[in-house]
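Q: Hi! Curious about what VOC family protein looks like structurally. Here's the sequence.
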Amino acid sequence: MTSRLTETVIDSSDPTALADFWCRVLGYVVLHEGDDYVEIGPAKVPDTELLEGIRRGPVAPALLFVPVPEAKARKNRLHLDLTPIDGSQADEVARLEALGAHRVDIGQGQTKWVVLADPEGNEFCVLRSLAPGEFELPADGAAAG
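A: Let's find out. The predicted structure is below.
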């Protein structure tokens, strides 16, 4: 028996604004919205197709934004890692900064990834790009470390 990750819940001061930021970052759409939440994810598919996909294997999880009265106070205990797929890491960081993200130093030192924060201060990382020309598998087909 196994479970599937289907949503990640993110506390926020303004769920609608934060959901809009992440929709633009990930190319997601609003799936459901209520008085106390906004759920975003890949484009909506019929429920029967979604259920079949979840049962078959991992799917891109939805993000669920819920309001909380307090502001973020410390470093995240859980964060998202993003991997550019159609441009360089630097180009993706510039795009995310234009959307409202900003660089943060959480004591990461010199790393190959870039640590950013969304408009409410939630940290996330931009990893190396997997775009053609930026990342290629070695001739033996094994992923390079």
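A: A fun detail: The mean pLDDT is 88.
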